[in-house]
Hints:
Number of domains: 1
CATH superfamily: SMI1/KNR4-like
Radius of gyration: 16 Å
CATH topology: SMI1/KNR4-like
Helix content: 25-40%
Distance between the termini: 41 Å
Number of helices: 6
Structural class: alpha+beta
Largest sheet: 5 strands, antiparallel
Strand order of the largest sheet: 3-4-5-6-7
Amino acid sequence: MNSVVLNEVEKLLKIKIPVQLRQFLLHHNGGMPENNAWLDPESEFEEVAIHELIPIKYYKKSNNKNYLIPSIAEDLWGRKLLPETLLPFAIDAGGNYFCIDINNGKIYYYTLDTWSDNLSLTDNQDMNTRFLCNSFNEFISKLVCEDDLDDLYGL
């Protein structure tokens, strides 16, 4: 990955990718992290696990542009399923997203499986947004291996 590609994505989406995510993307283009589970430090929520980090440009073996950060963001923003301040960078096995707020760099988990026709757009977006931590680097540093969760819980 190089900064030219990231600059093109920023221009396309009309955003600035937060610095910590930008640095990560310069070294990684998608993939499946070994440490993939986020544990809520307050124990309010169940853990959530990254199924895959979303690539920013094509994989050599696949030219499916619909599965890239820019295409996913444009689609979700265009359909008003995701606030335009949240940029998805990872997905869980259920089709929910890990996002970074492009204004402040905070990390959120955004669910799409609890949408209600009885709520306003804003209320739905608020209900589906769960704050995880204050920065991308903090998020990455606090991920644990999902396979080790039994040991962490003493099971």
